[in-house]
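# nightly structure sweep
# worker-07 picked up a monomer target from the shared queue
# config: single-sequence mode, recycle default, output format = structure tokens
# input follows
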Amino acid sequence: MTRIIEINRFEDLSAYRQDWDTLLCQTPLATFFQSFDWLEVYWRHCSAGQRLRVLIVETDGRPCGILPFVVRKERTRLGQVRVLTYPLDEWGTFFGPIGPQPDQTLAAGLAHIRSTERDWDVVDLRAVDDDRADRGLARQAFATAELPALRASWNQASVIELTGTW
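# output follows
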């Protein structure tokens, strides 16, 4: 059975640090920006005006995925909007759920978000690498959670393969 544990205080995350590190090693195409270390530094320096919403997805009492979210207010042409998004603030290029089954983690997390008290106006999952790491999984997770979704390009980043010899 799947269960979601929501953590809203960074201090409470320390109990999951080892699980986070283990799941990160199992995450397809993981980046440093998905690490516990990144969230720790990010939260220390960028948390003002944001609410932490880290979702720990458990199966049979063991963490199988982690979905770090923040809610922050952003100015738009329509006024101020509360955005539920990943903790990046334009620092990283790619982001997504942590763990070996990101599609299941994201679907369970979005279902949880949909069923809890709404502290956001828009869910904006920026830095989703639709062509490589995500492969359309985010769109499917939104559909599974019965949340309307609109796909749009946020930013573009070049990727350089450094494999091989020089």
